Amino acid sequence: MRNRYFTGLALLALLLFAGHAIADSAEKISTLADQKEVAVTIYNENLALVKDKRTLTLAKGENTLAFREVSGRMRPETALLQSSSQQQNIVVIEQNFDFDLLTPEKLLEKYVGRTIGVVKTHPTTGEETVEEATVLSSNNGVVLRVGDRIETGLSGGRLIFPDVPDNLRDKPTLVMQLASKTDRPQDVELSYLTGGLSWKADYVAELNSDESKLNLLGWVTLTNTSGTSYNNARLQLVAGDVHQVQPVFEKRMRGEMVDMAYAAEAPRMTQESLFEYHLYTLERATNILENQTKQVALLQAENISSRKEYLLKGQNYYYRNRSGDLGSKIKVAVYLSFENSKAENLGMPLPKGIVRVYKQDQAGSVQFVGEDRIDHTPDNETVRLKLGNAFDITADRKQTDFKKLAGFGAYNYVFESSYRIELKNGKDEDVVVRVVEPMPGDWDILSENLTHKKISSSESEWLVTVPAKGSAELLYRVKVRF
């Protein structure tokens, strides 16, 4: 009896190895060992272009090529395999993307309804026995039919599978049926678009003691969740809003499926124009490992002139209504700006990202003072960051008068109103607060104690100097027509 059990165990193992041997003889397998170089271009929108160059030796005529260790989030409809030489020695006839990866759960799932072996060990003698079983279910555990009984749990047992299904692999694999004109070694390049690779820019700015200058350090943060690694990769990044065809969702009747159609100093990065975008190239090869986040230096600039601005901005609704008290102890926003120009040691197109600003305290410790997000910023443009609200500067705003001069039709309203804004400064130095008031309709300033500037068709601006430990008032009357 014992010999019969061991014979059955050996037979199942033999079937397992035989299945692998047949698969290996039927496919030409290419792994990262064949890779000569890889280039990765990553876009902002969770999109990357991978160019994987490998040296292969194929049989002359038809071949089945298993191109292993590609991205698990490849868009297979974008895959292109071609010879690196001028001669096109290969023609792809058909391809299949196998991304259902080998795990115990997946293997069981593929064997539902099929026969496997169940190996059990006697708890006292250590004798192993094997029985044939049919997999009935693999949901939340395994359910087996063993002879005339149903078993679950498999305490102390293990399973033997005769082979691995063809579409279940341990690494993401692109399987191609192709014809080769030569049986000599040849360089081929597989290029494809994939998800799972993304990048973003982050910046660190440090202000000097009087806040007139700053140093700027830029980082690129890469994240790889594509299912494979890219070793010694030539890395390029594209900044810009690249248009992609969005997935089309087709609504069905209730109860049906919803279908979707897919369409020394750290080396820094050089940049160039690419169509209507900007391309950044890392000057050295780098490893982009699976399930890894890494940072690469983008730029470093020092002694950039900076300007601090205090801004109080109103709303246009109170020019239409009787409002009275419009708020006391209103916070005044603080902005920091600098020029992205060569004259300021910059002049490099800045990818969108978050700028975090720091400043040293009197003890020399660096403290965080605020952050803001910037959009893609070309050179010779102004970078303007909102860092928060001033603690020592506040405002009180009141509507001191309101009159309706006309208004008997849908678009014949005329209002006249006056306002008082009191600004208070608790600092030890004078400050200038920029007051911006949005004005609706056609408007005219009838009177004011400070001269305004019309900065747009719907905005008026006043620059109010507020003395140290003191206050200042802005008074104005305006007429608006709708």
Name the features.
mainly beta, disordered N terminus, elongated, about 5% helix, 2 helices, eight-stranded mixed beta sheet, Immunoglobulin-like, 13-stranded mixed beta sheet, about 475 residues
Percentage of helical residues? under 10%
User: SS-based structural class?
Assistant: mainly beta
**What is the overall number of helices?**
2
Question: How much strand content do the residues show?
Answer: over 45%
Task: Count the beta strands.
Answer: 32
**How would a textbook summarize the main sheet?**
13 strands, mixed
Notes on the structure:
- Among the domains are: 31-101 and 168-194, no CATH class; 216-301, no CATH class; 309-338 and 385-481, Immunoglobulin-like (Sandwich), CATH 2.60.40.
- It has helices at 2-26, 104-110, and strands at residues 28-30, 35-43, 47-56, 61-68, 80-83, 90-98, 115-121, 128-137, 143-146, 149-152, 157-160, 173-180, 186-194, 197-207, 213-224, 230-239, 248-250, 259-261, 269-274, 277-282, 286-288, 292-313, 330-340, 353-360, 366-374, 381-406, 414-425, 431-438, 442-448, 453-456, 459-466, 471-481.
- The protein starts with a helix and ends with a strand.
- It is mainly beta.
- The strands form five sheets. Strands 14, 15, 22, 23, 24, 25, 26, 27, 28, 29, 30, 31 and 32 form a 13-stranded mixed beta sheet that branches. Strands 2, 3, 5, 13, 16, 19, 20 and 21 form an eight-stranded mixed beta sheet that branches.
- It has two helices and 32 strands.
- The protein is elongated, with a radius of gyration of 35 Å.
- Helix content is 7%, strand content 56%.
- A hairpin with a 6-residue loop joins strand 7 and strand 8 (128-137).
- Residues 1-25 and 249-266 have low confidence and may be disordered.
